[in-house]
Design a protein that fits this description.
The protein has about 120 residues and is mostly beta strands. About 0% of the residues lie in helices and about 50% in strands. It is built from no helices and 11 strands. Strands 2, 4, 5, 6, 9, 10 and 11 form a 7-stranded mixed beta sheet that branches. The protein is globular, with a radius of gyration of 13 Å.
Length: about 120
């Protein structure tokens, strides 16, 4: 079993930055895909970004491309999401997730096997 713990969320002003971390523990594998999703009140959970084990394959949602940067440090079993130029519409609970299938970077939440509890990001205008 893989346990995921997010951190780094909080309150930030529009135009500011936050850096989220997702620490994985338990059984891990080198081919695991790691991704970020978010869910705003009254909205469905949506894909944000995902990254392959090597970092060679990265995918971003159009809404965050150019503003957010996903990365991972496999030695620390940790994934990061650097969020820049934050907008009020970025306000959501952010979840990290792991896809253990090894079938490539995917955007559907149903494809991910493990989830963290989420961290709240609130962006004020």
């Amino acid at each position: 079993q893989v346990q995921l713990v997010e951190s780094g969320g909080g309150l930030e002003q529009a135009g500011g930055s936050l850096r989220l971390s997702c620490a994985a523990s338990g059984r891990t594998f080198s081919n695991y895909i790691m991704g970020w999703f978010r869910q705003a009140p009254g909205k469905e959970r949506e894909f944000v970004a995902a990254i392959s084990w090597s970092g060679s394959t990265i995918s971003y949602a159009d809404s965050v491309k150019g503003r957010f940067i996903i990365s991972r440090d496999n030695a620390k079993n940790t994934m990061y999401l650097q969020m820049n130029s934050l907008k009020p519409e970025d306000t959501a609970v952010y979840y990290c997730a792991v896809d253990k299938s090894g079938r490539g970077v995917r955007r559907s939440s149903s494809m991910y096997d493990y989830w963290g509890q989420g961290t709240q990001v609130t962006v004020s205008s």
